[in-house]
Design goal:
6-stranded antiparallel β-sheet; 32% strand; single chain; Spore Coat Polysaccharide Biosynthesis Protein SpsA, Chain A; 12 helices; 28 strands
Length: 489
C-alpha cells in the first residue's frame, strides 16, 4: 500500500465512489529553496525529505484505493523529468498536460478539469501541489473521504491545516459553521491573505483560523461551472486551448495562442474566495508547503543540539541549524540558528529567521544576469544529463551521460568543435555520412560545422567527457535537423 510508504495503516475504503482523479500542479520554481531549487530543476524534483522526490511522494499519496491515474499539469520544459520520475515509482499511465506559458493555478486546474470532464464530468478532482509534504498519509486519506462526500454534494472543498504557530508564510481560512449531514466539513467564513506577525499571533490565540493548504477537492463539472460564472474569459480561453491541444509522444500540449490569452490568476482569487460553495475540512496530518529552508529544518530529524544535516557535513559547537551539502565537505563551527546550503556552484549562508527572504537574493541574482539564479551545473535532458566541469578562454569541458536506448538530436555547431572521450559504455556516433562505434577509452573528433549525433545503443549508460573549443560556446549554438523529443531549441 502506498499509505504504508509515508504514514501508517491502509487507506480508508471508498467503495462505489466515482473516479477520484489526482491533479498534480507542477509549475513552481521554489526560489526560496535556492541554491538547490532553481527554474531548470525546481524543488519538486529533489529528494528533500524521503528517498523519493517531492513529486514522487505527491503522486504516491494519490494512489489510494479507488483513485485514478494522476493528471499532471506542468511546464513543457520539465515534461521528460516528470515522466521519468513517475515511471521510477511505477506510475506509467499518468496524463501529462503541458502549459505553453505559465498562467497560475486557476488556468492549470481548469485545463485538467476540461480534460477529465471529456470522459466523466462527475469525476472528483483532488488538486495538489507537486511540492508539498504530508507526514501522516492515513489521516490525509480519512480527511479526503470527508472532502469527497462534500464535493459530490456540489461543494468546492479545501483542506485547512490546524495552525501550530503564528506563521506569516501561509494564507489562512476562517472556519465557519458545520455543514449539516457532513461530518468534519465546515463552511468557510473567509479566506485571509498572508498576515503579518501580530495578526498571525492573534489568529493562533483566537482559534478558528486554519492554514490554507492549497489542496482542493471538487467535481470537474462543479469547478468548470464556477469558473464560467466568475471568470468567463479564462473559461473560454482554456476551453479552446484544451479543444485545440495536440498529442506529442505521451504528452498533451495545450494550444499556445488560446492558453496565452488566459488571465494569470490563482484559484483562490478566481474561485475559492468568491464561490458560495466553499467548504473546508480541518486536518492535522503534518502538512507543509516546504517553502523555505526553515520549513525543512522543522520537518527534519534533529540531533541532540537541534541540527538537521544532509550530506558530507562536519559540525563543531553548532546548534539549531540546517546544514546541507550535495558533495563538498561542509564544515561549520561555533554558530547558532543558521542555514548553510552548498551545491556544486553556489553556497548559501543565512540566518534561519531570514529564510523567507532567500527569494529576494534570487531576484537580485536575476537582475545581475547571474546564470546560477536559474540553472545548475548539472543540467537534465530527456536523453540523460550533462555537467559543466570547467571552462576557460575558448574552451569548455563537460561530462555527458546518455541513458540506454536514448540519443541526442542530429545537430551541428557554427562556432565550436568537439572532442568526445568515452569513459564508460559504448557510443554510436554519427559524423557526417559515417557512423562510428566508440568504445570505452576511445575518442572521436567532431570538426566545427560537422553534422553529428550521439546515441547509446547498449543496455547501460554511456558516460563521456566532451571538450569544446571555439569562439563561442553557448548552448544556443545548436542547429537541430532531427530530434526524437520534438525540441526546437
Amino acid at each position: 500500500m502506498v499509505g504504508d510508504r509515508d504514514g501508517t495503516g491502509d487507506s480508508p475504503e471508498q467503495e462505489g465512489a466515482p473516479d477520484i482523479v489526482p491533479v498534480i500542479l507542477s509549475g513552481g520554481a521554489g526560489s526560496r529553496l535556492w541554491p538547490v531549487s532553481r527554474g531548470s530543476f525546481p524543488k519538486q524534483f529533489w529528494s528533500l525529505l524521503t528517498d523519493f522526490t517531492l513529486l514522487q511522494d505527491t503522486a504516491l499519496r494519490g494512489q489510494a484505493r479507488g483513485v485514478a491515474a494522476p493528471v499532471v499539469v506542468c511546464n513543457a520544459e520539465h515534461r521528460f523529468v516528470i515522466a521519468e520520475q513517475l515511471r521510477g515509482v511505477g506510475i506509467h499511465d499518468a496524463r501529462i498536460i503541458l502549459e505553453p506559458v505559465g498562467r497560475n493555478s486557476a488556468p492549470a486546474i481548469a485545463a485538467a478539469a476540461f480534460v477529465v470532464a471529456e470522459h466523466n464530468p462527475d469525476a472528483v478532482l483532488w488538486v495538489m501541489a507537486a511540492d508539498a509534504a504530508i507526514q501522516d498519509v492515513y489521516k490525509l486519506h480519512v480527511a479526503l473521504e470527508h472532502a469527497v462526500a462534500a464535493a459530490r454534494a456540489g461543494y468546492v472543498v479545501t483542506f485547512g491545516m490546524t495552525a501550530t504557530r503564528p506563521e506569516t508564510g501561509y494564507g489562512y481560512i476562517e472556519q465557519g459553521e458545520a455543514l449539516a449531514g457532513m461530518p468534519e466539513v465546515y463552511a468557510v467564513t473567509q479566506f485571509v491573505e498572508k498576515p503579518d506577525k501580530d495578526k498571525a499571533a492573534a489568529f493562533l490565540a483566537q482559534g478558528g483560523y486554519l492554514w490554507n493548504s492549497g489542496m482542493f477537492v471538487v467535481r470537474a463539472a462543479t469547478f468548470l461551472a464556477e469558473m464560467q460564472r466568475y471568470e468567463p474569459d479564462l473559461y473560454a480561453c482554456v476551453e479552446e486551448a484544451v479543444q485545440k491541444r495536440k498529442t506529442d509522444m505521451d504528452f498533451e500540449r495545450l494550444d499556445p495562442d488560446s492558453f496565452s490569452r488566459s488571465p494569470d490568476i490563482s484559484v483562490d482569487y478566481a474561485v475559492a474566495e468568491r464561490t458560495d460553495r466553499a467548504a473546508v475540512v480541518p486536518g492535522s496530518f503534518g502538512w507543509s508547503d516546504v517553502g523555505s529552508w526553515d520549513a525543512l529544518w522543522e520537518l527534519g530529524h534533529k540531533d541532540a543540539q537541534g541540527n538537521v544535516i544532509h550530506g558530507n557535513v562536519l559540525l563543531e559547537d553548532v546548534a539549531r541549524s540546517y546544514v546541507r551539502t550535495d558533495g563538498l565537505l561542509t564544515a561549520v563551527l561555533g554558530v547558532d540558528n543558521l542555514v548553510v546550503v552548498a551545491t556544486q556552484d553556489a553556497v548559501l549562508v543565512a540566518s534561519k529567521d531570514r529564510a523567507q527572504d532567500v527569494k529576494t537574493l534570487v531576484q537580485n541574482l536575476k537582475k545581475n544576469n547571474m546564470p546560477e539564479a536559474d540553472t545548475h551545473r548539472l543540467t537534465y535532458r530527456p536523453w540523460g544529463h550533462y555537467e559543466a566541469l570547467t571552462a576557460g578562454h575558448r574552451f569548455q569541458v563537460k561530462k555527458i551521460v546518455v541513458q540506454p536506448g536514448q540519443k541526442l538530436s542530429l545537430q551541428k555547431h557554427y562556432h565550436r568543435a568537439e572532442h568526445w572521450v568515452v569513459v564508460e559504455g559504448t557510443a554510436l556516433v554519427t559524423r557526417g555520412v559515417e557512423q562510428v562505434i566508440v568504445r570505452e577509452n576511445e575518442s572521436i573528433y567532431l570538426p566545427l560545422g560537422s553534422l553529428h549525433r550521439l546515441e547509446n545503443p547498449g543496455c547501460m549508460p554511456v558516460t563521456l567527457i566532451e571538450v569544446q573549443s571555439g569562439s563561442y560556446l553557448g548552448e544556443d549554438d545548436i542547429v537541430r535537423f532531427d530530434d526524437i523529443y520534438s525540441r526546437t531549441k
